[in-house]
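The following block was generated as part of the benchmark described in Methods. Ligand: adenine.
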Amino acid sequence: MKKILIIMAMEAEAMPIIEKLGLKKLPINEKLHSCFPRYRGEYEGNDIIISLNGKSKEYGVDRIGTEYAALNTQSAIIEFFPDLIINAGTCGAFSADANIADIITTDQPAMYHDHRVPIEGFAEFARGHYPTIHRPEYFEGVDFKLGVVTTGSSLDMPQIDEEHIRNNKGMAKEMECASVAAAAQLHGIDFFPIKSVTDLIDVEVDNVEQFLENLNKASAKLGETLIQVLKNISN
Ligand code: ADE
């Protein structure tokens, strides 16, 4: 039996998957002062844990972004010692690479497009290059694209970020993957992302508008894909 930890930022994306998998909410672990909602259950012979970044007490919204993704992943690793970590979520993509609700994973290191420290050694460190694994058999029966997943702290794309994304051949632009990958690397745990496209980052329509309009469609595709991948992992 494999123990698989799935890190997700948005509750609305996660709940339909949690229900389909039949996972049960775990009590808060007082010893770890865990503030991340966690759900666990057996699915197709594997032990599945979905850990959410949780809601901001101050603003009432999901704690999206790099900081809480890293904290969530690190504390879940210490609590569960998983064999494999998956980061499931949504992303933006260039119109030449993908359509709305397409699935993107990677066979290349995860990196940041907005960590710029132009000092020898620190530049590469800041950009990341955190390991990922790609097992084609996990994606059998799934329509997906392979490309670089690139992480930053903003939904918009200023020109300097676009330059870095293009230089790094980024395909999926999102806000968690490199942070989850960094925590996985610290503990030597296999990791890969599954991202579904909510918005095209180089078209005229505002990407916030696109994101909100396409979130349900992209989330449904993300859920279907994640469940297929979990089935494939157990075969
Ligand atoms: N998640 C979904 N779309 C995104 C975008 N355009 N940038 C960052 N994160 C995203």
